[in-house]
Amino acid sequence: MFELPPVTEAWEFLQKNSVAIGPQLHLLLWALGMLIIDFVIPAGRKAVSALLALGGIVMAGLQLYLLRSSSPISAFYDTVVLDSFATFFSALFLIAAAVTVFISYRYLEIENEQHTEYYALLLFATSGMMFMAAALDLITIFISLELMSISTYVLVGFLRRRRRSNEASLKYFLLGAFSTAIILYGMSLLYGVSGTTNLIVIGEQAKLLQGNTLLILAVFTIMAGLCFKVAAAPFHMWAPDAYEGAPTAVTGFMSVAVKAAAFALFLRIFFVAFHEVRGIYVPLLVAVSILTMTWGNVAAVTQQNVKRMLAYSSISHAGYVLMGLVAGTELGVIASAIYLLAYTFMNLGIWAVVILLRRQDISGEQVEDFDGLYSRHPSLAIVMLIFLLSLAGIPPLGGFIAKYFVFSAIIEVAMDPSQPYASLMVWLAVIGVINAVVSLYYYFRIVYAMFIQEEYQPAPLSFSAGLLTAIAITGIVTLLIGIYPQPFINLARAATSPLL
Amino acid sequence: MVETTHYLILSTIVFTIGVVGVLTRRNVIVVLMCIELMLNSVNLNLVAFSDRFQNVVGQVFTVFVITVAAAEAAVGLGIVIALFRNKETVNVDEIDLMKW
Questions:
Q1: Is residue B94 part of a domain?
Q2: What CATH number does residue B51 fall under?
Q3: Which of A221, A297, A477, B51 stands 20 to 30 A from B37 (CA)?
């Protein structure tokens, strides 16, 4: 089955196959190159590496752009595939990485931790995510998942002189490694029942293995592990701590890109390999979705620290993305993809504003730090308002379109009596709507602080070109998805077609 | 004759010891060792299945798992040392700066 070609053909084989992983490969090589170039960058000028990182991201993006319209290319004995799903998510990760570089530069400057390694790790994590979106084999999935996770553990602990950062990193590492081991156990059982590690073959085998105990166990363990990675309740405990302690720019990256990557994997595994055994996991996934959005929202209401509040809000958003997965229809996958797209931009925007408030000895992490922002910087307050309303799902913003799609996907399934668990779906939709209302409360606490409260922190904000660019890009796209969603819907539709 | 089932039972026992250890032990280093136990139970599974199917994929997977586990342990110990420099403890109960 795995006969290696003779040496003379090996080079040809490599050339032919590496086309499909071109963007990831170049990003990896670029990051390695950055680590070497680091030796000749003088100590005070490490900020140059931010530009280098941006160069690498643009190069990978260009390569991805050139490969975009080709039909799916599967390579290396079907272990990776470059299809529209992989392209869509890779583009999303590259954009998130670029925005993260924009918002990191200033933050690291203030924290006095400007190092090339930071940007290199960011690129490593990004290429791991791109491999995750493209992976079609259990081994590839595992390696890419670890490439992303291990890089992120280090990024979370990057402020190594800060105890909070150390602690966040340790908690994230322990639970991350634990969840990886659980996913791996599921994978080994999956290999045990099917005799292969290829997702497509596993999908075909799953049809014949309905009701096999080991298969059910494998589905559940993999699901539990992935719920850890996307921070879905009851496996979300690490998220608030890791998000609060991590450098704020990394928190933004984690809450957006890492989550989207885990969801890309979730969608790929559950649609390609486990679609035939939907019956066994749907009720459990409904419960996880309900628990995730409720727990996230209720816990967010009580928070004083904005980073922690946004961490819980990001947990509740994971519950909404899961709704698309639960629906399991074409509309459901499209809804999940659109939700992740809109969420990436609005959430990164919020983190950019939080970083903007970080100045001198003010952390910018408390709700009070937003007091009187409107009277001092009206335009900034209005952009922040746009992001918050979008997160809450108010029309005509990106978040509304995302929620609209998720709910219509669920209701479509709930109205169809031939679908199993239709009544469960009704409950899921009802609880989802209630939660959307609850979330308004804590988003409006920040709005209240910005517009109604008197000024509390008179220290001037330190604007930087990178941060303003990040806020402008994310703000415009958030508005655009809401006002003119058609091109984004088409993108998501094209992206999800390989799964169905 | 040792059947695949025997290996499966052994790996399940090792995996359970690992999970229980992660959830109950308080020393970070012991928790790390328990995670290694879980990974090694996976390796047992993969090799046993590989032998049963007479195909090499499972063994290739095992090599990758061992390699990545080493990388993960290196990063994990690095994080523990960074924390130990700031607060001299390896007890997870004392790592409690952030709570909800």
A1: no
A2: 1.10.287.3510
A3: B51
Task: Please tell me whether residue A297 adopts helix, strand or coil conformation.
Answer: helix
Task: Compute the residue count for chain A.
Answer: 500
Q: Where are the beta strands (DSSP E) in A371-457?
A: none
**Residue contact A174–B41, C-beta within 8 A:** no
Candidates B18, B42, B64; nearest CB to A143: B64
This model of the complex carries an ipTM of 0.95
A residues 186..225 contacting B (CB < 8 A)? 187-189, 191-192, 195-197
| Cβ neighbourhood burial of A217 (10 Å; 0-12, 13-18, 19+) | middle
Q: Tell me whether residue B99 is in a domain.
A: no
Cβ contacts of A299 on chain B, cutoff 8 Å: 100
Task: Note whether residue B93 is domain-resident.
Answer: no
Distance CA A288, CA A18 (A): 39
Number of residues in chain B? 100
For tokens 């390699």, name the residue: B67
* pTM, rounded to two decimals: 0.94
pLDDT digits (tens, 9 = 90+) for B35-89: 999 999 999 999 999 999 998 999 999 999 999 999 999 999 999 999 999 888 8
Cβ burial, residue A19 (10 Å; 0-12/13-18/19+): middle
Contact A192 B45 (CB under 8 A): yes
> Whole-angstrom Cα distance, residue A317 to residue B98?
22
A153 and chain B in contact, CB less than 8 A = yes
Number of domains into which chain B is organized: 1
- B98 in a domain, yes or no? no
pLDDT, tens digit (0-9, with 9 covering 90-100), for A58-101:
999 999 999 887 688 888 888 999 999 999 999 999 999 999 99
Of A150, A170, A181, the CB nearest to B38: A181
Task: Give the integer Cα–Cα distance in Å for A474 and A386.
Answer: 10
